[in-house]
Task: structure prediction
Amino acid sequence: MKTNLLYSVLFFILFSLPISLKSQNMNLYGVSTYGGQYNKGYIFKKNINAGPKTILHNFVGTDGHLPLSGLISATNGKFYGMTLAGGVNSVGVIYEFDTLTNTCVVIHSFADSSGRSPKGGLMQATNGNFYGMTYLGGTNGVGVLFEYDLSMGTYLVKYNFDSITGWYPEAALTEYMGKLYGVTTTGVLGGVEGSLFEYNIANSTMTVKKVFTVSQGNSILSKSDLLLASNGKLYGTSVTSGAYGNGMLYEYDPVLNTYFVKVDFYYFTTGSDPEAYLMEDDNHKIYGMCRFGGAHSNGTIYSYDLVTSQITKMYDIDSTLYSPFGGLIKMSNGKLYGATMQMFGPSTPNACLFEYDFQTNSTVRMDSVQLVDMVWPPNTYHLFGHRGCSLDTSISVITDSLGSITLMSNQNAATYQWILCSNNNTPISNATNQMYKPLVLGTYAVIVTSGTCTDTSRCVRVIPSGIENSAFKKKISLIPNPSNGDFVVDLGEERHSVNLIIYNAAGRKIFNSSYQNKDKIVCHLPRTKGLYILKITVGTESVYYLKHIIF
Result:
């Protein structure tokens, strides 16, 4: 803590309405943790072009108090969030907000025995259920990981945090390949270290993947959500840690189980205390904010390039904004939007929305919201654009018994066009049904049209693991796997015509070759560590994928 003043935090989820070259009508939806008619917080929307914010719902206490986590948009088109206090037991609730009717309904009231006082956000997994963590409560009193089944209306504790995993989780969870990843802030073996953990949804097992140490980042103040980037790796931040004690940005590879510190923040050159959650743009850059440091000591906006591993301080925040909280969102006008705490006097902090323009490298202060306390928004995986229509732009990921993946648009009675996000949003030929089966590693989205409304879903990363011919798969193997880059594809028997394509973890094609009358293919790849996907086509019928790891 750099000061003992009360802080202001603003959380918002992006929705964009119809856009033309002459005018834009785009709204930000968010929550204020304090203020409102009953001084218990409220839900609001703000048009980024003009006009003041509109309060949509005032919390009264029985429906929640102090909505610390931001909103997420579920597959049913409604908003969901959590509060730190309020409800039947005065220790927080999960609430549902319908933007069509502006009604807020409590769907679960927390209790001390099953988890209380959540500080992080909800996330909706590919199985349709909500997952989250509480800061306190549960068997050991130090928080729980829970599941909420939206269709059944049931709440279930999946794990009680302890001295093995750590205590007091404050972030949201991130899903990757059917597993949830998150961090705890302290308490491993009763000490000051927290951990990065993996929770397997299928078999309900918890595994600690990394214990943070003081030399590698003191996790006591590591509260930011993990970002799943386009390269298949997770990125997070920690404050008061790293080489200079100003915080760090780290990378975790869930496939190779490797952890690396990528950036040691330095107060004046990059900023200090990177508490804001991270977002990735389509240029393979991660954007974030530091709460302090920079030229004016009021914080910075920075970018981290996933390709070059370089950090760039983009903007020094001055006293007109002061000390950013939460994270950034990029709207369809190409600008970034965030929130900071501005000082109007020695003890009257005030949060404000701001706009950052890449072209002019400048910020504009937009609106003020009285808030209090410090917490961070939900997982950016759940932020997506919505263009003024009541269309469901969510995607369900369906995996069959053979592991084959099918994507399904959750909007019925519409027209569809699937696109490959990882190839400049190229439309996929003949992919115009509600369901689409990806055959290539990459990120996919669907453009949905109903009447005069058109909207595009968020991009979903897919690593195909199924096969079209299971009998053929049993006859093939990679030797060795993992390898150092040199390995053999054993086809099991001689094949008249074989095509081999190899993709890296980012979905880029790095090898493509055809063979005649082969039973084995010798491969020599660059010795670059990571996950690779082999697509093998025999004749015109048998197609399947194998995962290969280079160590």
Q: What stands out?
A: Residues 10-382 form a domain with the Neuraminidase fold (CATH 2.120.10.80). The longest strand covers residues 486-503.
